[in-house]
Amino acid sequence: MHDVKAVVFPACAALCALAFLYKLRDVRHQRDDPALRALLVAFSCKGVSFTLSTPLVARKVDDALGVRDLGALGIHLFGGVASSAAFLTAIVYWVYPREEARRRALARLGAAAVVAVVMFSLWIAAKSGVQQRSAHYLLQNAHRPVVAAYLLLYVSAFGSGMIEIIRLCGRYGRVAGRQWLRRGLHTTAIGASACLVYCLNRALSVVTVQLGLDPLEWELLTPVANGTGIFFLVAGLTMPSWGPRVSDARRLARNFVTYQRLHPLWHALSTAIPDIALNPQSDNRLTHLLPGDINYRLYRRVIEIQDGLLALRPYTDPDVVAAAERSGHEAGLSGDRLHARVQATSLAAALRAKRDRQQPGGEPVPLRPDATGGGGYADEVAWLLKVARAYTALPSAERTTQ
User: Fold this and answer.
1) Looking at the record, which segments are called Disordered (predicted)?
2) Mind listing the pLDDT tens digit for each residue in 335-358?
């Protein structure tokens, strides 16, 4: 068990340190943000607690200061009482108006201070008559009434904080306006639930020792629950900061992939109608792979494709459209897949007609049927992707424009 804790708890301490440093960057721009200050305190307290929870560190602290079980007291005060109050304070300032949040936060901090004083008094009382340090302070002394009272007070303060966090995150996570705040609150609730499992496990040890059972037999639950809890707490409470950057990165990646997939369709049109390209000289192989401002480049590509389809309208052949529809129906296509196949086939025929300078007779058929549902830019991009996919699926002989 010590081996597991020696790995998990230092990792948890490092995670808290990273979260602290990440949020510390915001102090310069948010000096008056009480939620930010509360998060910094919470991550600091949790980091100290996990450091002390490492068996070797706790023993070294006790030996260096000459006070047995001092490390255990630090674990419980910093990791349970102080951190839960600080986490809850941050969330309170997120979900309540500032004045109401201040009132609720002060009440919680005051209660935490009282609990800390009582726990310290019980810890002092528990030292009387005991000379040996306990490797597992709570579990090895849970049969003693004063330590049992200390333990129950500790898990009550810690657990009540986690319950309140779960309640607030569940309540306001459903109505939060910002997407990443909503996700962060839900993720935080998962972390608080894992910490609550740890609290319940510790509270049950008071009963199990009276039944002659040894809580150390399932002590693996402690590093598992605490490790899971702090991971989700850190992720959830920092998510409103880094989440939007993830969305931006995903959007850029999605636009880049879309830009590449539209290239065959754009290339066929711009080769046949060079005037549609805003800056043909810049559309070389390097620009294709490294387009720069991908959002702008994708927007330009969509506009240029639309211009190309409009310019090819005089070369569309109603007979080709009708034949493509029949072929698509025979192939079992329907809906957008059928429309995209028809448009791709008509486009290829129109490109060949323009190359051969042969305008079909009859009324031209629009190369862009009303298949986007009258939507906006996103719907237009989605539709052109379907057409581009259908166009690249055509036999190479049909796509020849030179």
Assistant:
1) 352-373
2) 888 888 888 888 888 888 888 777
